[in-house]
Amino acid sequence: MIPLSLLIMSLLLSCGGAILCLLLKNREGDIRLGGSGVGIAAAVAGLASGLTAIGAGQPAVLDAAGPYPFAHFVLRLDPLAGLMIAVISLLSLVAWIYGFAYVREYAGRGVGAMGFFMNAFIASMMLVVAADNAFWFLIFFEMMSLASYFLVIFDQDDEAVGAGFLYFLVAHGGSVLIMAAFFLMADQAGSFDFAAFRAHPLPAPLDSVAFLLAFIGFGAKAGMIPLHIWLPRAHPAAPSHASALMSGVMIKIGVFGIVKVGIDLLGASAGPAMLGWGLLVLAFGAVSSVLGVVYALAEHDIKKLLAYHSVENIGIILLGVGTGMIGMALHQPVLAVLGLMAGLYHLLNHAVFKGLLFLGAGSTIFRMHTKDMEEMGGLARNMPWTALSFLVGALAISAIPPLNGFVSEWYTYQALFAAALDGTPLVKFAAPIAAVMLALTGALAVMCFVKAYGIMFAGAPRSHHAEEAREAPAAMVAGMAVLAVACVALGLLAPLVAPVMGRIAAATIGTAPVTLAVGATLLPGDAQQATLSTPLIAILLIAMACLPIALKAAFAAKRGGDRKVAAPWAAGYLPDHHMSASAGGFAQPIRMFFAPLYSMRQAIAGRWTGVAHGFERVVTLARRTEPLADRNVIAPIAGAVDASGKWLQVIQAGDFRIYCLYIVAALIALLALAV
Amino acid sequence: MLTFSHLILGLFQALLLLAAAPLVSGLSRMVRAKLHTRHGPGLLQDYRDIAKLLTRQDLTPPNSGFAFRLMPAVMLTTVLVIAMGIPMLTRFTPVAPIGDLITVIYLFALARFFFSLSGIDSGSSFSGIGGSRELTMGVLVEPVMLLSLFVAALLAGSTNLGAIGSAIADGHVRSATATVIAALSFAYAIYIELGKLPYDMAEAEQELQEGPLTEYSGPSLALIKWAMALKQTVVVAWFVGVFLPFGSAPEMTFFGLLFGLVAFAIKLVLIFAAVGVVENSVARVRFRLTPQHSWVGVGAASLAFVFYLVGL
Fold it and tell me: Are the beta carbons of B223 and A548 separated by less than 8 Å?
């Protein structure tokens, strides 16, 4: 029960923090200190809760009656929920550390409200993953969407409000589908408890219907293509530490939902249809990963670029999850564990590096007051720590060995390889194609992050602001440093982390764990298939780096002189910063070569804006019809009441003798009635 | 399992290749001179160039940062590490935990990352365009590499480069046609990766002043020149190790290794001579048209995949 009590402690602290932020109202300095302090304490408790839940063999369950007779308030901490709680807590820990300095950007614009919504957002996410009852799950899911909606519209400008509206629409459209899926299952089980869902599985055609509803509903939350359209608008609009939480954690709740419904609730009893589900998830994952990064490349707004990368990484996670589901359908436990484990590992990794990158972007925006990369440039000189952390994040998200992004992508490749090796013909066909899509994604991601880091931090400053930028405040640097260290640690310590992920996957699927590491070597269940050792790669890289250093040093004595500064060659003209690479020019070849994919985005976006416009029209219509009802129904009634009141005033003459007469008359009337 | 002697073999192999790389690039220069009916500078010219550059002064553009300074060392280091994982003298990979096809592709991405980043960091427009092109070529080539190697790996049942090579050398592959087509498409991808004409895009000498190399001088340029020669050798060794492993040592014996070394050297010389002939008999492809060329690679790799699926 330790994990549960820690979780409840964390939740209570979050509630306390939320109330504190509201009570302190205008004392912003105290809100920053108190809010961050309580937030950090809540996050530490949550992290401890998550880690102990992963470590514990049995799931911890809390069953309370709650106010509603039809829905018990059940919290269940299995290893999967533990992982999610640990991820949420890690990111919120960093967000609170970072926010301590960052919210000064929002001074005088309701820092207290921001603290309140951040606390509510974090607590509701924790409750979503821990809830073991469909009713409460949906309640907390809605709370999460609402709290994040208020963070999206925090800036209150047109872009933020528009983005918030779209987000609101998609989030609620999604939750309606999820609700429908849960109602189907509840109808079969006769209860809203997930335990009952597991005990009374849906019969054959209905389970596919329920899965599809849940997949689309949670997919909208996860931001997979073509339901992603809200993501690149909503995430950039929120304050950067909230963007880090939304992109790093909240969209993972969508993936968690897909795993929960597809594997935990329906998977154990699903028939051959499950192969189709797995392939569907795989296909959506492959398309999301490639298109996400292709669209990211064309962006100049750093936060939009990062938001599109979230779409890409959700795709990569879904590749792993889909392979896991294929493994379950084919009754190959090793493949199932390998696939799901790859997905979960990437989920954790993406939370860490995407959180880091959003915070890095937030630090530059904090100093530059613009999101446009073209106005930055050369920031590494004045913001060295921010630059270094961002570089670590950029290398990690580009899956460069030996960092963490590479390890989880390697496992994804290995899962796809294992599926291609002994699957049904359809799987043999699909898995290598997914692997090629992943390779394309990887190459494009490298390009995108060379561009992002290069244009923002390298080269010459592109504006006056960039020249004068200063390093971000210590608290913000500390927040980024925590995540940068986590990126390196999750990569180099992969031989310790991978087996834990494997245990979580095995517990979720309900099979025996798979050997994923021997000593410092990683292997996908079978050492014959492949091996990898990130610590060894790191050691060899460091050892081999001695060679060029020694070579340069050996010739230092003979050298003609020290390093000298000289302007770059500009074909005889005077070089200026307009000549160096720009964000648009750098990605231009890809925009040219992949032009059809960009025009496809226009088509998808057009469809969605059509939907949004439709809703706006409904709202306008409602606004216009509102006075109609007023005039025809409410106004006449109000008028009649008014008139009758006037008429009744006649008997109210003000003379007390007349009132006495009324009383006597009433008494006589009553007596007459009684007799 | 990885033993100490494997590690030593890997180290030996990497250093041997490092020592031989300027010879290989010298060979390319010699072939070019022969085709131009010139005398040429001789086989050892690149050693002399490197030695000379190492003693010259280093120049840095005023706005460049640490990415520009680190790149030569990062590039040489990364390619050296890759060289330890690829089977060359032996059938098996010397350092198995880095001899995985995915790891090798992504380690090349590490070199590519810094190579292109230094292009932006230098502030020169030539370097920036070169960096962008280098990454674009990566986007076009990596999927072809992965698919062709993936087909061979599926036939061998392992993604370890040595295991794939051994399976091909022993004839333990189910589908010979698929293997041959996969080898051809991989060879094509490798040729593009070499950065030679007609695909000399990123370091185009006449067009972009050698792209990201534009602003380098002195010891930094020496390291990059050396690293690029090494990279070309390693890339060819990668192809040889997987698809032409004939003559390499199945076990780690002295004579086996010696024989493997001779066979490897002969294969390398033959391939670079052939590459030299191709390189000097074609003109550069227009950059805008490269996707049409890379589609050929994609098509060939897909064909190999289809043959694998059918089992021919």
Answer: yes
In chain A, the residue whose alpha carbon lies closest to the alpha carbon of B147 is A436
Give which of A409, A396, A284, A287 is closest to A341, Cα–Cα: A409
Give A418 to chain B, closest Cα distance, Å. Answer: 9
- Mean pLDDT of the A509-534 span: 87
Contact B60 A565 (CB under 8 A): yes
Three-state DSSP at A56 gives: coil
pLDDT single digits (tens) A369-408: 888 888 888 888 889 999 999 999 999 999 999 999 999 9
Q: Is B36 on the interface with A (CB under 8 A)?
A: no
Minimum-distance CB partner of A586 among B68, B77, B132: B132
Q: Are B68 and A459 in contact (CB under 8 A)?
A: no
Model pLDDT, residue A437:
93
| pLDDT tens profile A538-566 | 999 999 999 999 988 888 877 777 778 88
Mean pLDDT on B86-111? 91
Q: What is the pLDDT of residue A464?
A: 84
Runs of H (alpha helix) within A56-193: 79-102, 111-130, 134-152, 158-189
Cis peptide before B22 (omega within 30 of 0): no
Closest CA to B299 of B139, B138, B137, B144: B144
Q: How far apart are CA B105 and CA A530, in angstroms?
A: 14
Contact B152, B242 (CB under 8 A): yes
Q: Are strands A564-565 and B59-60 parallel, antiparallel or unpaired?
A: parallel
DSSP sequence for chain B: ---HHHHHHHHHHHHHHHHHHHHHHHHHHHHHHHHTT---S-TTHHHHHHHHHHTSPPEE-TT--HHHHHHHHHHHHHHHHHHHHS-SSBSS-SSGGG-BHHHHHHHHHHHHHHHHHHHHHT--HHHHHHHHHHHHHHHHHHHHHHHHHHHHHHHHT--BHHHHHHHHHHT--S-HHHHHHHHHHHHHHHHHHHT-TTS--TT-HHHHTTGGGTT--HHHHHHHHHHHHHHHHHHHHHHHHHH--TT-BSS--HHHHHHHHHHHHHHHHHHHHHHHHHHTTSPPPPGGGHHHHHHHHHHHHHHHHHHHHHT-
Instruction: Mark yes or no for CB contact A548/B55 under 8 Å.
Output: no
Pairing status of strand A60-64 against strand A73-77: antiparallel
Out of A400, A459, A581, closest to residue B113 by CB: A400
Phi, psi dihedrals of residue A371, rounded to the nearest 5°: -100, -5
Strands A521-522 and A517-518: antiparallel
Model ipTM?
0.94
Is pLDDT of A577 > 70? yes
B56 close contact with A: CB closer than 8 A: yes
pLDDT category of residue B115 using cuts at 50, 70 and 90: very high
Alpha carbon of B225: minimum distance to chain A alpha carbons (Å): 12
pLDDT score recorded for residue B294: 85
Cα separations in angstroms, B143 against A419, A605, B150: 19, 28, 10
